[in-house]
Design brief:
The protein is of the alpha/beta class and 316 residues long. Helices cover 39% and strands 19% of the residues. It folds into two domains: 192 residues, inorganic pyrophosphatase (n-terminal core) (Alpha-Beta Complex), CATH 3.90.1640.10; 117 residues, Diaminopimelate Epimerase, Chain A, domain 1 (Roll). It starts with a helix and ends with a helix. The structure holds manganese (II) ion.
Length: 316
């Protein structure tokens, strides 16, 4: 692994204009790892561009906002592309185009990453891409701003240092970040705690519509386009719902369905204990981690639920 890290740093040092991106609908880990890298690249006297179409309000507290571009990202020019926290080419959305145009460094912790880069630094089931970024950047020095972005990513993917993917090394990394006097409470409250009014209303709707199966071990719910429109929300307001479902006592598997495009449903899975929801997502061409996975199914709502139920039945 040390060799790959050296290769990545060498490639960055011989490039000038570096484009960074992550999976669409980026979460704290995707954004934290992009911003941390961008801040480092800037401090090396180079030009970073973070190409992310979507960017939730709660991440605006993080340093490095000045490098983020939301519009016409397909037109951005550079001489190196770094993909962060993204398992496949398609998950990059419009940023997929950079893989064909530029030398690509692919840094990720998802199972089933397709190794689409020229350099691939992949550690499946590592706590977060942001912790991987920490391990890369610590060799060259990390300042308070870089540390803040990395901290946001680590707490995002570990559920605030709570999920089993959290290791002693993760805690040691966070200790080092704390030594740089990062505003950890402020970051935590914004990244982990804050939600929009629409998200609040849609969470209520999802809870109201939720259905238990298998003696309370499975809990699912779904939100339609009509629900989203009723509360003036967007699909980004649905991010926190599946973790609310899995938090119910006795629930071992939770899944949440929403209509992203007409007739196409996005499914998010969460699991506890011995249950593997990545296997379920794989059946439908999706993927992720053992305890957090997702897929997209293009069938009518009721049929999506039936198909998933059939697969989940096999786990009991
Ligand atoms: Mn991640």
């Amino acid at each position: 692994m040390e060799k790959i890290i050296d290769e990545i740093l060498k490639k960055i040092s011989t490039s000038e204009k570096i484009i960074l991106s992550a999976h669409t609908n980026p979460d704290a880990d995707a954004i934290g790892s992009c911003l941390a890298f961008a801040l480092k690249i800037k401090s090396m006297g180079k030009t970073p561009i973070v190409a992310l179409e979507q960017f939730d309000e709660r991440f605006k507290i993080l340093p490095g906002q000045e490098f983020v571009v939301h519009d016409n990202i397909e037109d951005i020019e550079g001489d190196l592309f770094i993909s962060l926290d993204c398992a496949t080419e398609a998950r990059l959305g419009k940023a997929e185009i950079f893989i064909k145009k530029y030398f690509t460094i692919n840094i990720d912790h998802h199972h089933g990453n397709t190794n689409f880069g020229n350099i691939n630094y992949i550690i499946p089931d590592f706590s977060s891409t942001s912790e991987m970024v920490y391990n890369i950047l610590k060799k060259t020095g990390i300042n308070k701003d870089i540390a803040s972005a990395i901290y946001a990513g680590i707490i995002g993917d570990t559920g605030g240092l709570r999920h089993p993917c959290t290791t002693i090394e993760t805690m040691e990394a966070v200790t080092e970040l704390f030594k740089l006097d990062i505003p950890f409470s402020k970051i935590y409250n914004s990244v982990m705690g804050e939600k929009s009014v629409a998200a609040h209303k849609l969470l209520g709707r999802a809870i109201e519509k939720s259905v238990f199966l298998h003696n309370g071990k499975v809990l699912y719910s779904g939100i339609t386009k009509k629900d989203i429109e009723e509360f003036n929300g967007t699909y980004k307001d649905l991010d926190m719902i599946v973790s609310e479902l899995i938090s119910v006592r006795g629930v071992k598997i939770a899944f949440f369905i929403y209509e992203k495009e007409e007739g196409s449903f996005k499914v998010s899975f969460r699991a506890k204990d011995e249950y593997n929801v990545c296997a379920v997502a794989n059946v439908f061409g999706g993927g992720g981690h053992i305890k957090a996975a997702g897929c997209t199914i293009s069938l009518p709502f009721d049929e999506v639920i039936e198909k998933i139920k059939e697969e989940i039945d096999k786990l009991f």
